[in-house]
Specification:
The chain is built from 8 helices and 16 strands. It is of the alpha+beta class. The strands form 4 sheets. It has a 7-stranded mixed β-sheet with strand order 1-2-3-14-6-16-4. A 4-stranded antiparallel β-sheet has the order 5-15-7-13. Bound molecules: fe (ii) ion.
């Protein structure tokens, strides 16, 4: 059962009461994963439903620590979806980040990003469950937007609090290993269908918990709103150096049976190239109040739009 009474994003934010970290329940424990954030949950087998008492405990840990790791799980699709629903709504089917199953798996580097940050409704959370991990498969890296803000020099924070960032994606090239810059694709006149984008504060309160986030994403941040890309580059590089400092990055070496669930707004993710296309298969469940089909409708990611373009309409 979902902890959310409403599927409407605005209502959901209004009703949302962040839970503070709860001590784990009978028979299970939460252990710090990385000095600055994240917890490993030990002693819970998610192939079975959690008790009514344990569900809010898990959400409290998620709201506080932003990233949960469970090891040695044996999960069907529906088990992974059920675990995610304890934390956020799930409206999509499962998908694959995989070069084994049919799915999405570029072998190049993936710069840090938050899924669908170029829309008004980025994913609220994401989960990956490892089913195939050959030796040498690329780990996933996570950078903490909440912590990064708390460690930002005051003068820099003051400056960023006055700025909005335009996050965008290039659906024409589909590249994930270079930063997207609006001025490289025609500037303000560039099609919002082929280059969808969204402006929001660089210091952004989490829409559910209210926690302030440093929301500036390496792959998707084009420029500060009202600035040119050239004028934005230097300040963006300073912010990126702070965000991706090793003290703020947890890198996870996958093992089969690992499940990670993270807050897609509080935490960014990316990875280095997957060398030699090493076999790597991660089942993905996204958490949101709107479907991916709704997020991409009318954009260059919409299969109907692509079909029209190919047919020359
Ligand atoms: Fe992603």
């Amino acid at each position: 059962m979902s902890v959310f009474a409403s599927a409407d994003p605005a209502d959901m934010a209004q009703d949302y009461a962040p839970l503070v970290a709860q001590v784990a329940g009978d028979g299970w424990d939460a252990v710090a994963l990385f000095p600055s954030y994240g917890v490993e949950i030990r002693g819970l087998a998610l192939e079975r439903p959690l008790s009514e008492d344990d569900q809010p405990r898990l959400r409290g840990l998620f709201d506080t620590h932003h990233l949960l790791l469970f090891r040695a799980q044996q999960l069907r699709d529906e088990d992974q979806q059920r675990a995610c629903r304890y934390l956020r709504p799930v409206v999509d089917e499962v998908a694959w980040v995989s070069n084994v199953e049919a799915g999405f798996h570029p072998e190049t580097e993936l710069l840090y990003h938050c899924d669908y940050a170029f829309t008004a409704n980025p994913m609220l959370g994401l989960s990956l469950y490892a089913t195939v991990v050959a030796p040498g498969a690329a780990p996933t890296r996570f950078a903490n937007n909440a912590r990064a803000l708390t460690t930002l020099p005051a003068e820099l924070r003051d400056q960023l609090e006055q700025l909005n960032v335009v996050h965008m994606v290039d659906s024409v090239s589909g590249r994930n290993n270079v930063r997207t810059r609006l001025d490289d694709v025609g500037g303000a006149a560039a099609s919002t269908a082929w280059y969808p984008r969204c402006s929001r504060p660089a210091v952004w309160p989490h829409p559910l918990t209210g926690e302030p986030l440093l929301f500036v994403l390496e792959q998707q941040a084009s420029h500060f709103d009202g600035w040119t890309c050239d004028d934005s580059d230097e300040l963006l590089d300073i912010v990126f150096a702070h965000l991706y400092d090793e003290a703020n990055v947890y890198e996870h070496e996958w093992q089969v049976g690992d499940l990670i669930i993270w807050d897609n707004l509080a935490v960014q993710h990316g990875r280095r190239a997957n060398p030699n296309a090493v076999r790597r298969s991660l089942r993905r469940v996204a958490m949101n109040t709107v479907t991916t089909a709704e997020l991409i409708a009318g954009t260059g990611f919409d299969p109907a739009v692509r079909a029209r373009r190919q047919s020359g309409e």
